[in-house]
């Protein structure tokens, strides 16, 4: 595997993605929202749907056995990709659902439905950061309201950044959960996960990781990081949408009450009660996203062939180019780590005198796809003093030429809207 992805290899990579190769006139700089899929993923899903599709874990037919084998093989691939055991990977609807599964399970534990170690009550505390995606904020808000616990947050500075020292100042002996993003989807900050986990565990709290922006871009070993739970989504890592992954240490998953109940989750059911399977199946009620799981398995195969160290090295170069390009444009405010600092390959920015939606439309008219809005992080934008930002984000198929095109177009925005007068 290459240590980095050279421009020549990136040209080969671009050819693997129909959504990129088929639209050479477009610079797709919105992979933090959703990544394009390589042909191998699309083909794997289609092949399974055509010739192997059947219900899984139900019945004893050959078709069911083959489909179940494909389904569980995909789980094994994903588990190995993130340094987890096979029983530590749960399929969910998406990463948002995965985080809700943990929060709702803790709510059930607090209501006396098992899993006493997860029970919360008045005086207990849940800690997040002010920079969190709504998916990693609202479930904890609701858990606090259901249980009487207190939600606390780590404040960010004027650039949207926070440190481990900031976190420690918020923790207390009553902290029961610390939930945070590995990589911010707005600022690109890469959190010091090991330090945060150590701080959380030192006060007896569970560490929950939003890995949506890290699993596709970094070499992630969840067991080595020491987190208790983690969530990420397939569609951000060159896989299908409609599928998320919940990671949990096996002993915790076996005790956490399942948030979704019904068929496929049980060992015994009477008219009065039910007993549940061990993880992961205790959390996978109903008909499963089999085709999507097969697609994610193919996406993991693809990324593994590239090598995640090579992916990260390439994206570190792109991150530097992206940040320097945006920061060099007059009248543009970059949020997040300054040029020269480590960050993910995404850049959110505000243009003086021009609304983010207008910036996005201007860029789109010039063939550059970006994301505009609050990026499901309203509290962070409120702290930054803006209603919305424009975000450009890179992935394995992004080129330096596309970033240069972004810079050139961005340099024309203020004059076009008369904001430079």
UniProtKB/TrEMBL annotation:
Required cofactor names: pyridoxal 5'-phosphate
Keyword Transferase found: yes
Uppermost EC category: transferase
Residues in Aminotransferase class V domain copies: 28-406
Entry keyword Transferase: yes
Family: Belongs to the class-V pyridoxal-phosphate-dependent aminotransferase family. Csd subfamily.
Function: Catalyzes the removal of elemental sulfur and selenium atoms from L-cysteine, L-cystine, L-selenocysteine, and L-selenocystine to produce L-alanine.
Official protein name in the record: Cysteine desulfurase
Source organism per UniProt: Microbacterium gilvum
């Amino acid at each position: 595997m290459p240590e980095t992805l050279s421009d020549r290899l990136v040209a080969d990579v671009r050819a693997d993605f129909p959504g990129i190769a088929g639209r050479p006139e477009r610079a797709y700089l919105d992979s933090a929202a959703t990544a394009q899929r390589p042909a191998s993923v699309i083909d794997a899903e289609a092949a399974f749907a055509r010739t192997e599709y059947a219900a899984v874990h139900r019945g004893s037919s050959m078709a069911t056995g083959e489909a179940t084998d494909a389904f569980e093989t995909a789980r094994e691939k994903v588990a190995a990709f993130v340094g987890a055991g096979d029983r530590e990977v749960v399929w969910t609807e998406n990463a948002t659902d995965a985080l809700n599964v943990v929060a709702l399970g803790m709510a059930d534990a607090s209501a006396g439905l098992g899993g006493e170690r997860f029970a919360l009550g008045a005086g207990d505390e849940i800690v997040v950061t002010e920079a969190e995606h709504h998916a990693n904020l609202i479930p904890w808000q609701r858990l606090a309201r259901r249980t009487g616990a207190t939600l606390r947050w780590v404040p960010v500075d004027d650039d949207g950044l926070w440190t481990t020292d900031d976190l420690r100042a918020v923790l207390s002996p009553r902290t029961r959960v610390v939930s945070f993003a590995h990589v911010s989807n707005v600022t690109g900050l890469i959190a010091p996960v090991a330090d945060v986990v150590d701080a959380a565990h030192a006060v007896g709290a569970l560490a929950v990781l939003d890995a949506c922006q890290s699993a596709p871009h970094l070499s992630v070993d969840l067991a080595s990081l020491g987190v208790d739970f983690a969530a990420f989504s397939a569609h951000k890592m060159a896989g299908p949408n409609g599928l998320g992954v919940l990671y949990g240490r096996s002993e915790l998953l076996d005790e956490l009450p399942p948030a979704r109940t019904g068929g496929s989750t049980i060992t015994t059911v009477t008219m009065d009660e039910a007993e549940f399977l061990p993880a992961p199946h205790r959390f996978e009620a109903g008909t499963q996203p089999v085709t999507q799981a097969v697609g994610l398995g193919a996406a993991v195969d693809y990324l593994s062939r590239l090598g995640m160290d090579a992916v990260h090295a390439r994206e570190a170069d792109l991150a530097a180019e992206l940040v320097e390009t945006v920061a060099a444009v007059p009248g543009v405010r970059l949020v997040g780590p300054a040029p020269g600092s480590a960050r993910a390959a995404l850049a959110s920015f505000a243009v003086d005198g021009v609304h983010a939606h207008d910036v996005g439309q201007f860029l789109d008219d010039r063939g550059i796809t970006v994301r505009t809005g609050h990026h499901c992080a309203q509290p962070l934008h409120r702290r930054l003093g803006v209603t919305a930002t424009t975000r450009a984000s890179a992935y394995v198929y992004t080129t330096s030429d596309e970033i240069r095109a972004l810079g050139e177009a961005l340099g024309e925005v203020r004059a076009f809207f008369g904001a430079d007068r």
